[in-house]
Every structure is written in C-alpha cells, then in structure tokens.
Amino acid sequence: MIKLKTTTEIRQLKKIHSIAGIGYWVYNYSTKDFWWSDVTHSILGYQDGNVIPTRDILKKHIHPEDLVFFEESLKQMQLQPMEIEFRFYKNGELRLGKITGEVYKKEDIIEEVLFQDITDIKIKEFEIAKAWNKALEAENLKNAFLANMSHELRTPLNSIIGFSELLESGNIKEDIPKFASSIKDSGLQLLKIIEDLLKVSMLESRTAKPVKRNFNLHNMMKDVESLTHKLLSNNKKEHLQLKFPNIDVNQVIKSDQNKIIGILSNLLHNAVKFTEKGSITCSYRFINQTIEFTISDTGKGIPAKSQSNVFQRFRQANENSINNFGGTGLGLYISRLEIELLGGKIWIASEEKIGTTVKFSLPNVIDQELINEADSTANLYNWENYTVVVAEDQFTNYKILEAYLQPTNINIIWAKTGKEAMTASLQNPEVNLILMDINMPHTNGLEATKLIKKKRPDLTIIAQTAYALEGDREKSLKAGCSEHLSKPFNKSDLLLCMSRYLP
After folding, report:
1. Distance CA 260, CA 338 (A)
2. CB atoms near residue 187 (< 10 Å)
3. For the packed helices 445-455 and 418-427, what is the interaxial angle rounded to 10 degrees?
4. Along the 503 residues of the chain, how does pLDDT read in single tens digits?
5. Three-class secondary structure of residue 129 per DSSP
6. 3-class DSSP state of 197
7. Paired sense of beta strands 82-90 and 34-36, if any
8. Do 198 and 154 fall within a single domain?
9. 237 and 355 co-located in one domain
10. Which of 161, 184, 204 is the last residue of a domain?
11. Shared-domain flag, residues 308 and 416
C-alpha cells in the first residue's frame, strides 16, 4: 500500500473543500492561535492573506441577534459535537451559515469546525417547498373541482333522464308541461356548464378573440335587467330590490356586446346567489372613452383573506360554498379573462355581512363617429311570400326549427343532406334563404355553400351549427355564409338573424 505524504494529503483535502464550498477553521484554546482555510476567507468575503484570522474578526461577521447563540454554541462544543445555523454578513450582504464542529482535548484544547454558506441551498429548498405546496394546492383544487363537477353534471342529467323516462312511459299526461319545463331547465343548466368549460379552454389558449361592433347600450342594459328579473324569479328572490339605471338616451358604444352581457350576467348571478335580503344594483358611468360598470349587493360578503382568490379558476370565496350554493367556480375567472381580452380590468371590494361591490372597466368604447341608434327590430314577422331551405340531417333539430318558423308563415323545404340542399336551392328559384347545417352526410354544409354560391351568388345562406369554437365562424363566412349561428340558439336569435335578409 502506498502511503501519501502529508503535504499531498493536505492539498487533496483543500481541493475537496474548495469544490464543496466548505470552509475550515482551527482554534487553540490554550495558545489562542486561530487559523482558517482559503474557503473560509472566501465565505467571509476576504481575499486570502488580506486579513489575519482572529476570534473577534469572526464575531464581527455574525448577525447581532445571533451572536449570543453563536458564542453559547461554541462553549457547548467543548462538551459535545455541535451543528448550528446562523446569520452572518459577507461584504455587507446578509447570508445564512452552518458550522459543524467539535473540541479535542489532548495536550491542548483544539476546536475544529467545518463552515459552510448555505444561503443558496436554503433558497432552493424554499423554492422547492413553495413549488411543492403550489402543486399540492393545484392537485387539491383539481380534485375538489372534479368532485364538484361530477355533482354539477349529474344533477341536471338525473332530472333529464328521470323526467324523460316518465314521459316515455306514457302513463302521465296532466304533468307533461311541468316535466317538459324541468327537462328544459336542466338542459340549460347542463349547457351553461359545458359553455363555461369551453370558454375557459378558448380563453386560456388565447384562441378567443373579441368581436367589437356598435350597439345600443341602453337596450343591452334593458336585456340584462330582464334576465336578472328572471333569475330572481327562478331563485324565489323576487323580494330583493333590483336597481338599474333609468336612462332614455340611446347611447351607442363599440365593444363585444355578447361578452359584456356574459360578464354582467355572471356578476349578477353571483349577487343573486349570495344575497338573501336588501338590494342588488347595476350601473355604469363614462370616464372619457372608458365605460365603468358597477354591480353591488347587500349579501353575505367575502372574507378579506379570500378576496384575492375569487378571480382564480375553480376558486370560490369559501370553498364550502360550493356545496352550499353550487356552481363550478369558473364564473369570475371567465369574467376576468374576458375583461382582460377586451383590454379592461376588474376589481372587488367586500365586507362580511355588509355586501360586495364588483367593478370592471372597458377602454376605448366611444367612437366620435357613432350616432344614436333606435331599436327598429319588429316584434312580429310575416314571411308568407318567402321560402327557406332548412338543411338539417337531425329530425329533432329540424322539428325545432320548423316550430320556430311556422308562426312567420314562411314556406319551408327540408333538406336532409348537403346534396339535397343544393338540389332544392338550384331547382327552386323562389328560395330566398338557406339555414345550412355544417356537419351533414355526403356533402358537408361548407362544401354545399361554396357550390350553391357559384350558381346563385346572391342567395343568403345562414350557417346553423354545433361548431362553436374560435375560427368556425370565419370558416363559415369564408365559404360564403352571411351569418353563423352557434347551436343551441333560441327562437328570437334565429328570427332576428333572418330578419336582416328578409323584409
């Protein structure tokens, strides 16, 4: 066996300490001699040889609040090995150190200590712990969301399936309207959940884009007020006082009307849900070219510690409120993303047992060239001299459209495929409009539209489809459609859309 020389061993030990960043000092209690290694010089911020090591110089680097603890630990080291952590200064910067040492008593009393700067290690440990806690929180939120979503989906499905089975049996006749109404309400509830999930996906993926058009602000607020009254009625809260601005000026603004209605509906839905007595107020004001909406209630309020979470996804002011009040916890998150998409911002002020006020602002909604517009939409339509082709392969969907259109006296031709739609429109010159489903057998709606437009370029074609993702509207318009209606749409949406092209 080869025995290394002492100088070689010392050199190797210094190299190991340098790589590991571990300093080393030796103190002789008998002679008061003090020595520390090059790494110790570096840890304390000195260049090797710039300072003569002493106990007093070492103590000057220790944080004043840790100095007594540090000195007592060195005394205890004479009785047993010690490992401690403490704060120290390096060139004026506060750092965190660790020493591990013991005292040997032979001819002299010798203190040998390993010294390490663990600041970066602790920071990394903290960041790892923070990331881990964040991951755990996300996992817990996900699990809570999935459990709640299962409940939110199964509740309306249970109603739909249950009442459908009763209707299918044919033994119950007097309650048919009541059962049908319950199925419709549950279907709308289920649709709202699906729409929320799709909105989140589109907004987070940055595929959603605002569609800004001129619209009458007063008329929109009247529609929102009507929806809120219906919401109060459905929740048996007609006793609440609802306050909306009573303004007759036909102010026209330019923004995404559908998104604003959705945002206001979400905020007012929350106000209704969490308010048992008092009032709910919805108002707006203009600040230069910015509009600021305010929704206030006298409800239960939000705890101060939870107010920063309410605009995060899957979060509610009180996680237990999911069970008490229902909901997916996506409403305010969607509202925040849509407001940011429109270039605005949203904020909240709330006090428990007093109420909540939510405000959001949207910039650049005033155009100097806009003029006041009056609502000229007719309440009744009579199109007895016109013909429409309903291109729809699903029988139930066709029957719904037929029921919507029958009161207008319009002539209806049913086409079950894209090919039949082409034949009907090209062989019947009296056809004035086509309601074109996109997903049809043989020839899809977009291909059929392109072929029809080559023969009859002036014929109005309205896409009515279950494709509702960002970009689907553009595909329909590019193929030659004049409008794009996303299923499900209601009767008024359909008739209003058709009225733009039929006198």
Report:
1. 8
2. 15
3. 20
4. 334 455 555 565 566 666 768 888 999 998 889 988 888 888 999 876 678 889 999 999 999 999 999 999 999 998 999 999 999 999 989 999 999 999 988 778 899 999 999 999 888 888 888 888 877 777 776 676 676 677 778 888 888 888 888 888 777 767 788 888 888 888 887 887 788 777 777 787 777 788 888 888 888 899 899 999 999 998 899 999 999 987 666 688 889 888 999 899 999 999 999 999 999 999 999 988 899 999 999 999 888 877 777 887 655 544 444 444 445 667 888 899 999 999 999 999 998 889 999 999 999 998 654 443 333 333 468 898 899 999 998 888 888 899 889 888 899 999 999 899 999 999 998 999 999 998 888 788 999 999 999 999 999 999 988 765 657 788 888 889 998 888 777 788 888 889 888 87
5. helix
6. helix
7. unpaired
8. yes
9. yes
10. 204
11. no
141 within 8 A of 315, measured Cβ to Cβ = yes
Q: Are residues 28 and 106 in the same domain?
A: yes
Dihedrals phi, psi of 456, to nearest 5 degrees: -130, 80
Identify the domain boundary among 314, 329, 362: 362
Q: What is the CATH number of the domain that holds 68?
A: 3.30.450.20
Considering the domain architecture, whether residues 398 and 278 belong to the same structural domain is answered as no
- Residue 53 within any structural domain of the chain: yes
The domain total for the chain is 4
Q: What is the pTM of this model?
A: 0.47
Q: For residue 36, how many other CB atoms are within 10 A of its CB?
A: 21
Residue 437 lies in a domain: yes
CATH of the domain at 479: 3.40.50.2300
Burial 353-380 (b: 16+ CB within 10 A, else e): eebbbbbbbbebbeeeeeeeeeeeeeee
Instruction: State the residue for tokens 């220790």.
Output: 62
CATH of residue 230 = 3.30.565.10
- Alpha carbon 216 to chain centroid, angstroms: 29
Contacts of 333 (CB under 8 A, 6+ apart): 200, 311, 312, 313, 314, 315
Q: What is the DSSP letter of 489?
A: -
Report the alpha-carbon distance of residue 437 to residue 454 in Å, rounded. 19
- DSSP-derived letter for residue 171 is -
CA 183 to each of CA 189, 266, 326, 494: distance values in angstroms, whole numbers, following the listed order: 10, 23, 19, 22
Residue 408 lies in a domain: yes
Residue 301: which domain range?
A: 213-362
Structure-token pair, residue 37: 């290694």
CATH code for the domain of 169: 1.10.287.130
Residue 293 lies in a domain: yes
Cα-to-chain-centroid distance, residue 256: 19
Q: For residue 85, give the amino acid letter.
A: E
Dihedral angle of Cα 358, 363, 369, 371, to the nearest 10 degrees: -10
